[in-house]
Specification:
Layout (H helix, E strand, L loop, with lengths): L2 H29 L2 H6 L8 H21 L11 H25 L4 H34 L5 E6 L3 H12 L5 E7 L4 H10 L3 E4 L6 H13 L3 E4 L10 E7 L2 E7 L6 H20 L1 H15 L4 E7 L5 E7 L13 H18 L17 H8 L7 H7 L3 E3 L6 H4 L15 E3 L12 H13 L3 H17 L5
Parallel strand pairs: 1-2, 1-3, 3-4, 9-10
Antiparallel strand pairs: 4-6, 5-6, 7-8
Helix pairs in contact: 1-3, 1-5, 3-4, 4-5, 9-13
């Protein structure tokens, strides 16, 4: 899901909350107007000092009702009319719950009025908020901002209808960058050059073999895959059904980290990394001073890794090797020479099988470097990668580009999410695992992610480090 859509999905909740608060304030103020007092004088037993804290609490419960009504699901294809209909139904549920309490507790007219007025104004205010959000999204999409680059595959009327709808209704958020009758090797090469956000395959039942190849291609290159039939419903545990141009569309998702799952994990990462950066600041200072005294600058080593969707970034680590052996652009020509030395060491001292490597008894590591590697203190600067959004606290291990290039196609699913400082593989054996075992654990985590699982992995990590299991 694109950041554009995630941003608006996230914004909807605070906008609704603010609008509900305004509705409550407006209802209270309305009771004091001359017109309402002419009907019945104010005999309030609910002063403002008691009203506004109560309003905040009731609004929180109202938001929960909205959430259970599906008003915050991350569906970019949902129509405004459907959202407004759900909004009225959810607000009516909230009104009914409060009304039942008010009437059975024999509250005075003023409280009953506040409930009824608050209900009507809640629909008006939150409806207006959603119209504004929808209008802003539509305005930006019409100007080419936030569009999902899409490839359509199919030759029947369904494919043409979807394509024409996208061309006419830019506000839907799709930009068609390719339209092909079938999927084959030649089509795959062309699609790869375009790097679309998603592929829509119409009526895969008519060409099952071609559809299966397209699914494999999409998974390999981390491209969202949608189809207009239910033939492949058993192929994925993470799916979403929506409608485009009146046609049911099923999206196969490789992970639960979609929509609010992705938003919640990012909030968790920001808060967690910020706290850990502060908590470990004394350790940061101590390790930096020792490295500087032992071998000088630089203290931080930047190593190129592959992140989400194959995007390259520099992971930060405390330098554990002597400067002359450090690889990467950070060290210029010396880094290139160091890379040749490393490649020679891999040939004779690699202890792992497969695309990834581990140099056993690495002679390049300093005395203190061995300690910080064994204790994982060298990875503390990665909390900054997490705070920046390049990594997550929990996720697959980030590997180097030359390792990722050798990944089998089926293992590239680990690039569907951000790599982690720790992860299921790290707490299940660290470097003792072979490549296939590591990939299976990471794939399982991606397909069955939950915030609870992240918490368990984070809690287990320091105990695994202290045990020294799978020491690097």
């Amino acid at each position: 899901m694109k950041k554009f859509e995630l941003t608006f999905t996230f914004l909807q909740l605070p906008v609704d909350y603010a609008m509900l608060i305004l509705a409550g304030f407006a209802a209270y103020a309305l009771r004091f107007t001359e017109f309402m007092q002419s009907i019945r004088p104010v005999v309030f037993d609910l002063p403002w000092q008691r009203y506004w804290p109560l309003l905040l609490a009731v609004t929180g419960g109202w938001i929960l009702i909205y959430a259970f009504s599906g008003l915050y699901t991350a569906d970019p294809n949902r129509k405004l009319a459907d959202s407004l209909r759900r909004l009225v139904m959810a607000s009516s549920t909230g009104f009914a719950a409060i009304a039942i309490y008010v009437f059975f507790s024999l509250q005075k007219f003023d409280s009953r009025f506040l409930v009824l007025a608050g209900y009507v104004l809640a629909i008006i205010f939150t409806g207006a908020g959603r119209i504004i959000i929808y209008g802003l999204k539509y305005f930006l999409r019409k100007r080419g901002i936030g569009l999902r680059n899409t490839v359509i595959i199919g030759k029947e009327a369904v494919a043409e209808k979807i394509k024409n709808t996208f061309f006419v209704q830019k506000g839907l958020g799709y930009n068609v960058v390719g339209f092909y009758e079938h999927f084959d090797e030649e089509t795959a090469k062309i699609i790869l050059e375009k790097l679309p956000d998603e592929i829509i395959f119409t009526d895969p039942k008519a060409n099952e073999e071609s559809a299966l190849r397209a699914i494999e291609f999409a998974n390999e290159h981390n491209i969202a895959f949608k189809y207009s039939a239910d033939l492949f419903a058993t192929l994925s545990t993470n799916m979403a059904v929506s409608a485009i141009a009146g046609i049911p569309i099923v999206e196969m998702r490789r992970t639960r980290l979609y929509g609010w799952g992705r938003i919640i994990k990012r909030i968790f990462d920001i808060c967690g990394s910020f706290i850990l950066l502060i908590l470990f600041s004394p350790a940061f200072l101590a390790v930096a001073i020792i490295i500087f005294v032992e071998t000088g600058l630089p203290v931080i080593y930047k190593n190129e890794r592959v992140g989400q969707n194959g995007k390259k970034f520099f992971v930060y680590k405390f330098r554990s090797m002597r400067q002359k052996y450090c690889t990467g652009s950070q060290f210029g020509t010396a880094g290139e020479e160091a890379l040749k030395i490393e490649e020679d060491l891999i040939k004779v001292k690699n202890s792992r099988v497969g695309p990834i490597y581990k140099i056993k008894d690495d002679p390049r590591v300093t005395r203190f470097g061995k300690f910080i590697r064994r204790s994982s203190l060298d990875e503390l600067p990665q909390f900054w990668n997490v705070f920046k959004g390049e990594m997550s606290l929990v996720g697959p291990r980030p590997h180097q580009p030359r390792e990722v290039e050798k990944y089998p196609k089926q293992n590239k699913i680990v690039l569907a999410i951000k790599p982690g400082v720790t992860g299921m593989a790290q707490i299940s054996g660290r470097s003792d695992l072979n490549f296939e075992e590591e990939m299976k654990l990471d794939t399982f985590y991606i397909e069955h992610w939950s915030l609870f699982a992240d918490l368990i992995i984070l809690i287990k990590t320091p105990f695994i480090v202290l045990k020294g299991k799978g020491v690097k």
